[in-house]
Amino acid sequence: MRDAAPKTIYLSDYTPYPWTIESVDLHFTLDPHATRVRSVIRFAPNPAYVEDPDAPLPTMFLHGEKVKLIWAEIEGIPVDATITDEGLTTAVPSGPFTWEAEVEIDPANNTALEGLYMSNGMYCTQCEAEGFRKITYYPDRPDVMSVFTVTIEGPHPVLLSNGNPVTSSKHLAKWHDPWPKPAYLLALVAGELISHHNTFTTKSGRKVDLNLYVRPGDEGKCAFGMEALKASMKWDEEVYGREYDLDLFNIVAVDDFNMGAMENKGLNIFNSSAVLASPETSTDMNFERIEAIIAHEYFHNWTGNRITCRDWFQLCLKEGLTVYRDSQFTSDMRSAPVKRISDVIDLRGRQFAEDQGPLAHPVRPESFQEINNFYTATVYEKGAEVIGMLKTLVGDDAYYKAVELYFTRHDGQACTIEDWLAVFEETTGRDLTQFKRWYSQAGTPRLSVEESFELDTLTLTFTQHTPPSAATPNPEPQVIPIALGLIYPDGTEALETRILEMTKAEQSFRFTGLEDQPVASILRGFSAPVVLTHNLSDADRAHLLTHDTDPFNRWEAGNMLGRNAMLAMIREGTAPDPAFLQATKAIATDETLDPAFRDLMIGWPGPSELATVLHEAGEVPDPEQLFEVSEEMRNAMAETFADAAPEIYARHNVTEPYQPNAEQSGKRALTNVMLAFISRHSGTATAQKQFDNADNMTQQISALSQIVRHGDGAPALAAFYDQWKDDRLVMDKWFGLQVSCSKPEEAAATAQRLTGHPDFNHKNPNRFRAVFGALAAYHDAFHHKNGAAYTLLADWLIILDPLNPQTTARMCSAFQTWKRYDTDRQAKILAEVDRILATPNLSRDTTEMLTRIKGA
Ligand code: B3K
Ligand code: ZN
């Protein structure tokens, strides 16, 4: 229900909870529509809150939503409570006391997928951020940590909760988690599940049982996830000295899930798309994502669970750090440059767009209405960039020393960003006051550089400026670590990477003793999340493209050449730049380079990134024109690669048994780009052959997309459907592909047609996102001037909101870039936003998102 006046919560209002909780006992008696939850909770006055232990305590408030109270007692005496939609208030004794209660909940009708709900006959939970209050009455806030014992009664063969099993008999299981935790980490699973089992021995010799629980039929998709888990456990011991702390680690795959996965203590719950993998059904990208998510959730055991957040404003404390840790892991397991480049592409695509629009907020927001709306690219990805900058500034040794101090000092606590920064200040003696602006200021800093060279001295003068936003009207200069190298005209290195620490609005750095004027390679490794303006000539960029020793900046030089080529086509109507085409071909055919890196080097900015760049420059992007120039570039590339593409394709086509490793997936990525050129230039015979012979999803689906784009897609789509109709994860791909391979003017109609398909189920977030995520991500289609995609998405958001506010609200971000476009498109988007906002009883989640998107 929409509140009459939605409440805004402020970071500055934080106060500790008046009680601590010594222990929590929960007893679940499962029933689809009438699950009973009995709770026994031991409260004691919190010394951090009450100055005078004899002073009367305030009345107690417990969160509780959509729970039916059957009875409640304090110290055995029935409670006289005031109950609202948000919780319960009652008088309590002044000393320690025991609360006992029984409530009833309805998991089968819980379509929001928050709290206890059912998915394909199986019970599961999702409690972060504020879902526990839909299970029972409780102080549902992360700074209230306690030891939980959970008993589950139900007719299911598998009954799971956090921690270690205490007793288990037919239809009853008791679990105890010795580690104090906030309620958001509680988990329960019950169902007919099959375990894929393995073990891991920790560095101190503790043998840990590992289980991956899946639905019958999915047993063949567990091996990769299990290996990824073991690799993560080993990596965290080796790199961060973190050992696992229970005898058991369980992962459960669930089909209906609002996000990727959840780090519940000892019982991670995963969207099946984020854990189930097999060569036949998963692409290389799926494998890489699964490995990263398994690592991410596992790493939360220390960064999130053992040390959690004091309040939800501190979300980046666990998420930024854990994303940073999982990116380190992927870099170590695969190719570090490829990982860095992909992360930056993603950051620019999602986080920079967020910062550029009405949803801009600091890494640590200062207010919210619905915390689920703040699981954003800014909190996660920019939050990780901030950790990376800190490490760059203090150096590797100091970084690991500070993190070690953080682990020892704060184990078992609910912490803040201040606690995190303090360990760095103490370890290094640095004052991080200014650095902290990265947490408190919204917006992407613009960094520009002027160069002057005299005799043997190069002077670089940097200026920084962050555009004001509603969240941060008066941004101040940030600490920017600028990784710099210098390359002489003959291609040799004049200066190895060094870190310039910029703290002022304008700052100069001098480099003397140079033999010749070098080309500056600035922001190596993308050392700070800023927009850099460096007016290099195309010749200098080509020089860096060939000679830079930093792989990121090598890629960036090519990326900027591509961007300039695209901008010239847009602004001046020129043909695709032959120099860019040839430089791309030279890299793609350079057999000394890693195929994965070559694959990345063949790219050029897509329509969405170009729209960001044009908006930044004060121009209005025209989606139709962006589509046309992108097509023109693809045609020119296909022509340029007319001879090379079949050669590269033949040379790198992987025929050995499928392995999801970096080496093979790099080759498949490269050959699939070549397949796109071949199909565009010479038709789909090669693609059809690849489609017919493929023994893995990467090759099958990339061939299918070429056939749909450039040939007669219907028979191949039908064959694919027949082959995979019983595999829901592959069917998600089938749905998504048809939208993204449609012509821009037809994609909305395709999506609409697909919503009528018997296999479309809007209640399943994966299927909903397969269709509408694909539509929203397809720039030229989503923003087609006919406005059909805006209307269709709005229609379906109105349908989904009463069922699943979280997924609805998240999808609303498709509208966040509305201000970039012409007045006609703006009006069309705003009309849809208003239409959704006018829906009676719109959720708090969606209301907040759309109100912010519209702006003041
Ligand atoms: N911590 C969870 C995200 C919970 C989202 C709640 N809306 C997964 C993760 O970041 O690891
Ligand atoms: Zn996380």
What does this 3D model show about the protein?
With 856 residues, this protein is of the alpha+beta class. Helices cover 41% and strands 21% of the residues. It is built from 27 helices and 31 strands. The strands form nine sheets. The protein has an eight-stranded mixed β-sheet, with no helix packed on it. A five-stranded mixed β-sheet has the order 17-18-19-21-20, with helices on one face. It is globular, with a radius of gyration of 28 Å. Bound molecules: (3S)-3,7-diaminoheptanoic acid and zinc ion (ZN). Residues 128-129, 259, 261-263, 296-297, 300, 319, 372, 375 line the site of (3S)-3,7-diaminoheptanoic acid (B3K).
How are the SSEs placed, and which strands pair?
Layout: E1 9-10, E2 19-29, E3 35-45, E4 60-63, E5 68-74, E6 77-78, E7 81-83, E8 87-90, E9 97-105, E10 115-119, E11 122-126, E12 146-153, E13 158-161, E14 164-169, E15 172-181, E16 188-191, E17 194-201, E18 207-214, H1 223-240, E19 248-254, E20 261-262, E21 267-271, H2 284-299, E22 308-309, H3 315-333, H4 336-356, E23 367-368, H5 377-394, H6 396-410, E24 414-415, H7 417-428, H8 437-440, E25 446-454, E26 457-465, E27 480-487, E28 493-502, E29 506-511, E30 519-522, E31 531-534, H9 538-547, H10 551-572, H11 578-588, H12 595-601, H13 607-616, H14 623-640, H15 644-652, H16 662-682, H17 685-693, H18 697-710, H19 713-724, H20 728-740, H21 747-755, H22 765-777, H23 779-782, H24 788-800, H25 805-811, H26 823-837, H27 844-854
Parallel strand pairs: 2-12, 18-19, 19-21, 22-24, 25-31
Antiparallel strand pairs: 1-23, 2-3, 3-9, 4-8, 5-6, 5-9, 7-8, 10-11, 12-15, 13-16, 14-15, 17-18, 20-21, 25-26, 26-29, 27-28, 27-30
Helix pairs in contact: 1-2, 2-3, 3-4, 3-5, 4-5, 4-13, 5-6, 6-7, 9-10, 12-16, 14-16, 15-16, 16-18, 17-18, 18-19, 19-20, 20-21, 20-22, 24-26, 25-27, 26-27
This protein binds (3S)-3,7-diaminoheptanoic acid and zinc ion.
